[in-house]
Amino acid sequence: MTPIAPGARVEVRDELWIVRRVDPSSDGGYLYTCDGVSELVRDKNALFLSKLEEDIEVLDPAETKLVADTSSNYNNTLLYLGSLLRRNIANDEHLHLGQHAVMKLKQYQLVPALQGLKQPRTRILIADAVGLGKTLEAGILATEMIQRGRGKRILVVTQKSMLTQFQKEFWSRFTIPLVRLDSVGLARVRNRIPANHNPFNYYERSIISMDTLKQNLEYRNYLEKAWWDIIIIDECQNVALRSSEQNMSSRARLAKRLATRSDTLILLSATPHDGSARSFASLMNLLDPTAIGDPDNFTQEDYRDKGLVVRRFRTDIRHEAGEDFPERNLKEIKHPAGPQEEASYEALLEIPFTQRGEHIPGRQKELQRVGVQKGLFSSPAAALVSAHERIKKLHEHDPPTPSEKAEIIGQENFIKCLKAIEPKNFSKYQSLLSLINDTQEGWNSTDAKDRLVIFSERIETLNWLREHLKEDLPIGEKKIEILQGGMRDTEQQEIVDRFGRLDDPIRLLLCSDVASEGLNLHYFCHRLIHFDLPWSLMTFQQRNGRIDRFGQTEQPLIYWFVNQTRTEKIRGDLRILEILIEKEKQAYENLGDPAVFLNVHDQEKEEKSIAELMAAGESAEAVGTQLDENAENAQKEGTEWWMDLFQSEEIPNLDENYVLAEDEVRFFESDWHFFKTGLQELNAQGQMVQSSVDEQNKTVTITAPKDLQERLRQIPSEARSTNNQYNLTTRVDLLEESIDQARQARAGENTWPDLHYLWPQHPIVEWIVDRLATRFGRHEAPVLRSANLDPGEKAFILMAIIPNKKGQPLLVDWQVACRKQSQEFKLIPLKSLVERLELRAGEIPNPGDEKVPETLKKSLPEAVEVMKRNMVLRQKEFSSSMNQRLEKKLSALKTLQERQFEQLELKLELSKQDEGIKNSKRQNRILEINQVFDDYREWVTNTLKTEPDPHIQVLAAFCSQND
């Protein structure tokens, strides 16, 4: 069964419809998503199953009825043509809209979209370093997919603290609405929809946290029964297989299932693997399950030319970042340890740690000491918790062994020393107070635009800091807040939202490392303090990225403390942490990725490596030498070994011809002109839409009618107007101001911008386009008279679409069939006719003649026939090109499949298991491989295989004024 191409006008149940979307249905036919055109169904949407409908008639273009357009300046025709131009974008490799989003665009941010559009199946990992704008890059690509009719249903999965931030970014900058399914949102959805209905089918575009999906079995089941066009998984390193795990985690299993529920998959992560081939292979298998048969044994041949990864560092984009990425300033603050702190260090070193009831000097004992020391380096409060928990555990043996009793005594002495460290003699805390109060450093706690972030790994330290800072700083309790992982999702989102609002009293935010990934804390903040140094280069980089990121307007100021102690062992361990920071600075300036120094690519593993070095008694100098050797070896092998495996050989060319759509035709000066004219014509036709226009600021205020109100229920509730009145503008500078002003909202007020982006992707603009695309009746095309045509000359604008097996338009061709007097029709580009006839809105006089020349009507079938002959040739040429691409793809899949079979046999040959078990494993794995490749072949075939019959539509006809 041949599907009907999107854009086709069809007659179903005696009414006229436009096919907007085509999807294969489970019964072997097609599901058509249609918009009503004829009077009875105008502005209605409907779904039709081809197997159930007795007759879906595609209208013959040669029988199109030509009607006079009597509107002023032929506005109806130009609006109609403009709407169709906006609606019918081919699945090509050019950017059409995403680059115009509300952002200070940098060229490097276009690369993921260009690389994704080159693939027959858009699947990509955007692995840019911290702070480069991965959310914006994902938004550009998602916008391009939406414009191609491949982004109707979207699911975003992110961390619970990121839900509101991600939702805001997608809406305010790309007008992509996402329904937030946090704990409150889920309850709201459940109250709104019938019982047992799938909420992921109810809302077309939504955002949810991985933790919610992992913990909520009901919603996980709903998730696995839904289908999306685009799935975005943020911080995807959290769903990768860990090399330390024997079994797949619940997050990894969920991500594997999600990867099968969407055509387009976008993964985001600045730290996309833990250094192991298996971990990275798990992410690659989410994107393309055909490439890796053995995750422990794969080569470049498996992924050549796939273009699945984009990875850049600050060093790569520094030349174009400019003022949007001011260079950071790192400052080390040294402070001498006081007598009470020195006593606690000595007490820690004297604790005779035990294992299984015995004191055994050596590595294990030193690791225990280093573990307690980590808490002590954070704060006495954190170390106290560890000491009390240890004593409690030692008392589990009743009675404790002699060795355990000795450790208990040591722990109690340690506790005594810790309790003696009061705020006044806690040197790091006093240094913090001095830094905060130092007028030369410039922090002004009374200035709402000058806020401060303090990071600590330990919750006990954060609580201690809050308790004492609210007493020792003249800023009041309401100006200090904590952000940590134990909070509910809505609490975390609220804190982040408040910190980014100018009017909120928060001045100082105390953060655990739950805030180190993804969050935007830079809007009114360019100062960050590491109260305790992380034992991971990756964590240090992630923390700094909260304020040192794209869009920061001030120089980031980053501080950390170094305790100068007389206790030699402790001094040596602290020096190792200093070496870490020196290496991070080296990576920032030259290498890009600090993970090359420890070469484990995982925060927990980095911390463990540092602990091992301290426990082994390694000197700081030896550690520094080892780290340099690691980095040197990594560079010799390729700084990013996995990029050598997976980077596409073809780097997208960012010249303007490649980035922008070719031969772009415009009937209106701008989206503003199009939208304003469309509103005027709707009102002139009696479809009253209350609106007011501000020409100077290119702003329009519109009161949504009932049908539009229904559409707008899909946008975030915070972005919806309570009185159904919406303000839109095409001016990006005003939109940026509106976004900033929203952050300055008073407590209790909405922090979402009240000014919306007037561009093709906004739901209100889409609603206008839908209405304008049906300006003419059933199977009709308008007629225009032009003084620039010779007497007897005739022209017809024709559009042809060549779809794939899925009904997606692979080629959209606009041509003009033109002839003079009795000559034959010839096809010319639309742009040529537009330039010759000066088809610009508001500039074409309309004499108002309601007559349509008979000679024009009689010429129509001949013009359509010329277009048909042309499109048959083009279809053959285009189909041949696509078939070559398909054959190449299928051949590559066959090679990969054979390679996986070979890898399977090699693995089984090395196995010492019983032959019966090996045969069972062989059969199961063969079935699995065949299923994966068969599914992928079907997908590729349906995507690249074209349908034999192009769909042709007559859009408009032209004659001279004297005809």
What tags apply to this protein structure?
single chain, 963 residues, alpha/beta, SH3 type barrels, Rossmann fold
Describe this structure in words.
This protein is α/β, with parallel strands linked by helices and 963 residues long. Among the domains are: 1-59, Roll (SH3 type barrels), CATH 2.30.30; 102-287, 3-Layer(aba) Sandwich (Rossmann fold); 338-421, no CATH class; 686-772, no CATH class; 782-963, no CATH class. 43% of the residues lie in helices and 16% in strands. The chain is built from 32 helices and 28 strands. It has a 7-stranded parallel beta sheet with strand order 9-10-8-11-12-7-13, sandwiched between helices. Strands 6-24-28-25-26-27 form a 6-stranded mixed beta sheet, with helices on both faces. A 6-stranded parallel beta sheet has the order 14-19-18-15-17-16, sandwiched between helices. The longest helix is centred in the C-terminal third of the chain and has 57 residues, at 854-910.
